[in-house]
Amino acid sequence: MSLRISTSSKYAVLISLALTAVTVKAEISQTQWMKLNKASINEHVLPGYQRLALASKALEQTTADLCQNLTDTDLKRTRSRFNDMLNAWQGIQHVQFGPIEVLMRSYTIQFWPDKKNLTSKQLNTVLNNAEPATLTPDYFQTASIAVKGLPAMERILFAEQPLQALKQQKFRCDFLHAISSHLEMQTQNTLNEWKLFKKEFEYTSSEEGAYESAQEATIDLMKAQVEPLEVIRDLKLLRPLGKTQKAKPRRLENWRSRNALLNIQTNIKSLHHLFSGAKDYSLFALLSDHGAIDLAEGIEQQFVALEALLAQVPAPLSHHINEPAVREQLLLITQGISLLHKSLDKSMSTLELQLGFNSRDGD
Amino acid sequence: MMGINRRQFTLLLGCGLVSPNLLAKSQSPLFASAAQTSPEGYALKVISKQGRSLINHQLPARAHHVAKHPHQPLLAAVGRRPETFIDVINYETGLLSKRIESSPGQHFYGHAIYSNDGRWLITTENEIQSGQGLIVIRDCGNDYRVIKQFSSYGIGPHELKLTADGKTLVVANGGILTNPGQGREKLNLDSMQPSLAYIDLQSGRLTEQIFMPAQLHQLSIRHFDINDRGRVVIALQYQGAKSDDVPLIAFHSSGDKNLSLVKAPAAINLAMKQYCGSARFDHSGTTAAVSSPRGDLVTFWNAQDGSFLTALKSRDGCGLAATHVPDEFLISTGRGHCYRFNVKTGLKEKLTLRLSSRTAWDNHLTLL
After folding, report:
1. What are the CA-CA distances from residue A166 to residues A66, A162, A173, A174, B278 (Å)?
2. Which of B25, B78, B207, B249 is the least buried, fewest Cβ under 10 Å from its Cβ?
3. What is the pLDDT of residues A254-263, one digit of tens each?
């Protein structure tokens, strides 16, 4: 077999090796990664789950009250607590690692988008059958995720004439309460488990721990920082906007409770907080400490600009999404999200963090 | 060591003329893999048993699987979908032996194998216009000229293997239609029909084909391994709703009417995130390993009855290879690490790699 390589391509190999050697950045110590991890967990992740657990407890209590007194006031209060819990969830939804991964908790809390309309179909079946067994924790353990989370509650609480329907069928409210109890337990367990899991962010290296090094733990946190942006852009904005001029308001997240816009505002605000909000240390501070202050400030400004743009969009989004001016605003926001994503990607390569190679772009 | 004997080598050492590169060549190779070595840079790398980089061959684009010639020091690094190159490297000299281009109107899917006698290089390819899968056979002794091509009997053929006797090709038809004009976009998720095809190498005739059951038609059959007894282990990738909880591993033996679909224990099956990247049997063919890079874990299975054995945490771990020790595997990761794990003893050892640049190991790992 003939060898077909020219001398020049042998040099090409050498030159490219030399080039890679020059671009190596000053190394960040495991102690610094750990500092970032601890600050992010203590000041961002744990308070987020704390809020979620508290909000779901409050929702469970008002739901119990509602089933005792089916009044307008109780319905209003329950709806308001529902909005609070949804908002708390939107503020911590981006964290997709650790205890929230267990038992599909993340999907259990909010199964969305529901492209096959499973929530409606399965919830109707449960309500029509009205089996007492479907109110028990045993049932919830194995029940479909489509009937045991916030979307199922939203359908009951924000139906047309919800009070009338609840009065007509006691089981309907009992099932609503059973969902809220299940959510309370899941969010409380998530918080409790996080109080133990947080130890995994307090070492620089470990043989037995969940992570081999502090930097590996940082990668999980940075996935939470970067990856949700695509979901917000593609599923929460572009999918309802549709490719043609005609938008599809019912593709908006939580359009029934009119929370679609607030959800996105909360998502961005929370990602912003993860980026620069913690006092002890943050990605912003780490970038600044490593000569990438321009990049850090650029990202900060992108967050601020996105929040300002989002503040100008009229709510409820489901009523306005078909207005040409709103469509234009939303498309501008999707572009802003793409640019922010690019900047964050750049910060990852500056810090030499590989968020995922085979996991993100395998074949 | 090529072209230089031990005495000459000692002499060279004595004269201080030995370059580090030549020193590296005195080390025996452990594995080969495609890798990303910079944001836009891709390479075929060969790593020695001492963890040194012996070969760092720059590739024109991202590659996928590396096929090893059965008795010559040749490696074929196959461009991943929709690339059109295969670089054949002599891993003793580090030189490019041949850059193969796919025929006009066709592209590679990232996988190739050598025939058992080493005469042919066999690839899975896409006939772009029709979208139909092809098996293409090239003559290694005649400048890799295409001597024959025939249907893969499905869309999106991916990994391919030969049975122990070298006569039957087994092909994973992933079922997913893509067209280079639309990048890597999946065009037929609603109608995809993945299958495992057994094809007579000599005639190109289909001898057996097993389809995914209708309700699981979105479970893509992409990667698999076959042992000496013809047992096949398949790593599946699900294209349906993210919240569906489906089996992600399948077994098959020629003659079985159906695939034997298996699930890991509930929590682990969920953690696998509907995606498996690579499947390999161990040296004895009794234990199978399947990587789940999205779930940061590798699961291990009993090849015969398909029972779950254990799982191992491995961040962005994807590449798998059996070592010469039964029950022992090498695992490579997108974070540049490589581990040796023994399923029987439970011992996990991180290999010390001395790499000059950041390296992300790509999907597959080839033991040398």
Report:
1. 10, 6, 6, 9, 52
2. B207
3. 999 999 999 9
